[in-house]
């Protein structure tokens, strides 16, 4: 039925329309007001592209295609319905799936075409499986760490970078050999196998605080591997989609590494966890001031301007809905409440925004770091909920601090600082936070959800 | 097909520039949905897997292709679904009618 003349052109035109829709889809993401049109455009583009492909001349086996499409949709629906707190691991998992698809197709294409693979074809094919392979296992590791089925602490050993570099060199050298001698089929499993191993090794030394950068970088790799696949299959649609995804991941990685004060080359070569060789010592017990929920409520109620700084701890404690109640209670009393969002707060880019939006906090109350930092001196109370390193003034002042130079939220300039924290133990990075010992700082010890709930009760009952 | 390697490289280069320009304007507010959306779009790789399975080239290729279709389709469906759920949550405090 697809034998009529010109059907190939029809399909190419369908792909052209789909590509345009994909670009529009991303363009509409620029503002929350138009973002949902973006999804619609993306969905239409996707349906067109898949439909067009099914019409292709030469598709003879429908049964397995349909079974796989149905099965994939069946897996996709629960993955699309996960809780918002599980979004980082879901995202990592989907990077893994995308990379798996690319790697498998690349592998199959190699064995179908070898030994007659032109040099350029073999080069992009190698790139496809190397990037795809390491993204697959790397993303699985990231998802495992985020889901806490794997240890979250960075695992480091001596010569880590050397081993990685060596493996990478072997993989690239084998790939180069394959480009020159595409008949050497026995080398191909080696290339794939090493890439899979590199993925694991790259993510093993990474701690939780570096996850936003890593997820962005894996996103970029997943896109680039898909673009490489587009070259192999000579599919312009795939090249465009891969390039869009690759550049998106790249931009996010740059933003994240800037927000962590890491150089981009440092990130590219996967030396993430390095800086965190914690500065031990200096653990003498300095006095801190603590306060109860009642006292905290009284100070908050008397304030004019409050800035809440959420961090990963808020996500862990699932405290976002209680925070919303606090926001409501304070707003009702005429207090101006805003939220200060550090780019790397949480475990992926934009993590805090999504959690707070889920709790129905209006997005125009969520303010980016650069915009809000100037307002802290006029802020009565900065309330920190589960954030640590992104508020650490040592990043500004202490040259010996491992996070020196990292841009932070200047919460210490607020009149009063309140920190909700489980105890005095240092955060993920193992760095002491001088903020806690300031005269203007009050420590609120306890579980974020319970403590915020306590403040809300006091605010409701007191007046 | 009429296209050459050089054509493909041109397309890749242009698409990267478009990607940079478009993504640069995405509000940091929406970085998480952005990532899940690009992930769903990236799963267009399913097209390659469909051709692989549909053309029934070898048993080995079919097995790999079927797994690839399953993986990519789950990204398409799950990616669009969760992006839409996230975006529905973003509301502004100002009544929409007031602002022109």
Describe the structure.
The complex is a heterodimer of chains A (463) and B (100). Chain A is an alpha/beta fold and 463 residues long. Chain A has helices at residues 7-27, 35-54, 62-80, 87-113, 119-146, 160-180, 188-203, 211-233, 236-259, 264-268, 293-302, 312-316, 320-332, 351-358, 369-372, 394-397, 448-462, and strands at 305-310, 336-341, 366-368, 381-385, 416-421, 441-445. In chain A, strand 4 (381-385), helix 16 and strand 5 form a beta-alpha-beta unit. Chain A is globular. The relative contact order of chain A is 0.09. Residues 272-283 of chain A have low confidence and may be disordered. Chain B is an all-alpha fold. Chain B has a domain at 28-89. In chain B, helix 2 (31-42) runs antiparallel to helix 4 and helix 3 (46-54) runs antiparallel to helix 4. Mean pLDDT of chain B is 88; it is low at 96-100. Classes of the chains: A alpha/beta (463), B mainly alpha (100).
For the structure shown, list the relevant keywords:
heterodimer; A: 463 residues; alpha/beta; Rossmann fold; six-stranded parallel beta sheet; 57% helix; 7% strand; B: 100 residues; mainly alpha
Number of helices of chain A: 17
Query: Uncertain runs of chain B with pLDDT below 50, 5 residues or more?
Result: 96-100
Oligomer, anyone?
heterodimer
Categorize the overall geometry of chain A.
Answer: globular
Query: Spans of chain A of 5+ residues with little confidence (pLDDT < 50)?
Result: 272-283
* Helicity range of chain B: over 70%
Structural class of chain A: alpha/beta
The tally of beta strands of chain B, per DSSP, is 0
Summarize the structure.
The complex is a heterodimer of chains A (463) and B (100). In chain A, strand 2, helix 14 (351-358) and strand 3 form a beta-alpha-beta unit. A six-stranded parallel sheet of chain A has the order 3-2-1-4-5-6.
């Amino acid at each position: 039925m697809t034998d009529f003349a010109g059907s190939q052109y029809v399909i190419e035109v369908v792909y052209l329309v789909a590509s345009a829709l994909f670009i529009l889809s991303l363009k509409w993401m620029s503002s929350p007001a138009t973002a949902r049109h973006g999804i619609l455009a993306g969905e239409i583009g996707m349906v067109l592209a898949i439909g067009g492909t099914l019409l292709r001349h030469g598709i003879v086996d429908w049964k397995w295609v349909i079974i796989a499409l149905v099965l994939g949709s069946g897996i996709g629906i629960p993955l699309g319905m996960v809780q918002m707190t599980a979004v980082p691991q879901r995202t990592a998992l989907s990077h893994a799936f995308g990379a798996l698809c690319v790697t498998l197709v690349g592998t199959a294409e190699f064995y179908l075409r070898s030994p007659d693979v032109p040099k350029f074809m073999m080069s992009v094919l190698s790139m496809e499986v190397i990037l795809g392979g390491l993204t697959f296992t790397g993303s699985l590791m990231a998802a495992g760490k985020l889901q806490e089925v794997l240890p979250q602490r960075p695992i480091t050993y001596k010569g880590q970078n050397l081993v990685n570099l060596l493996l990478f060199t072997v993989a690239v050298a084998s790939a180069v050999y394959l480009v020159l001698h595409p008949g050497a089929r026995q080398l191909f499993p080696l290339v794939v196998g090493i890439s899979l191993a590199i993925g694991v090794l790259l993510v093993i030394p990474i701690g939780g605080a570096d996850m936003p950068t890593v997820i962005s970088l894996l996103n970029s790799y997943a896109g680039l591997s898909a673009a490489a696949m587009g070259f192999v299959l000579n599919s312009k649609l795939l090249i465009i989609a891969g390039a869009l995804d690759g550049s998106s991941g790249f931009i996010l990685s740059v933003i994240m590494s800037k927000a962590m004060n890491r150089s981009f080359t440092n990130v590219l070569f996967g030396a993430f966890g390095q800086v965190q060789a914690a500065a031990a010592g200096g653990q003498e017990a300095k006095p801190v001031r603590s306060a109860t929920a009642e006292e905290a409520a009284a100070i908050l109620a008397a304030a004019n301007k409050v800035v809440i700084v959420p961090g990963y701890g808020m996500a862990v404690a699932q405290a976002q809905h209680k925070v919303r109640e606090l926001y409501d209670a304070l707003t009702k009393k005429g207090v101006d409440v805003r939220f200060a969002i550090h780019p790397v707060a949480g475990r992926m880019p934009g993590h805090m925004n999504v959690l707070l939006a889920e709790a129905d906090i209006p997005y125009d109350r969520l303010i980016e770091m650069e915009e809000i930092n100037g307002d802290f001196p006029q802020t009565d109370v900065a309330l920190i909920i589960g954030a640590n390193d992104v508020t650490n003034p040592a990043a500004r002042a202490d040259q010996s601090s491992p996070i020196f130079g990292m841009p932070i939220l200047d919460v210490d300039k607020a009149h009063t600082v309140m920190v909700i924290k489980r105890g005095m133990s240092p955060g993920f990075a193992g760095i002491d936070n001088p903020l806690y010992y300031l005269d203007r700082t009050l420590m609120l010890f306890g579980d974020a959800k319970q403590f915020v709930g306590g403040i809300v009760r006091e605010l409701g009952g007191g007046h | 097909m009429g296209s050459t390697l050089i054509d493909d490289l041109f397309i890749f280069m242009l698409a990267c520039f478009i990607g940079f320009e478009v993504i640069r304007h995405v509000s940091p507010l929406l970085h998480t949905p952005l990532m899940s959306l690009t992930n769903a779009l990236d799963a267009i790789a399913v097209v390659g897997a469909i051709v692989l399975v549909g053309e029934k080239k070898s048993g080995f290729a079919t097995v790999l292709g079927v797994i690839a279709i399953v993986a990519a389709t789950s990204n398409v469906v799950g990616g669009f679904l969760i992006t839409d759920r996230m975006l529905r949550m973003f509301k502004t405090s100002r009544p929409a009618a007031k602002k022109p």
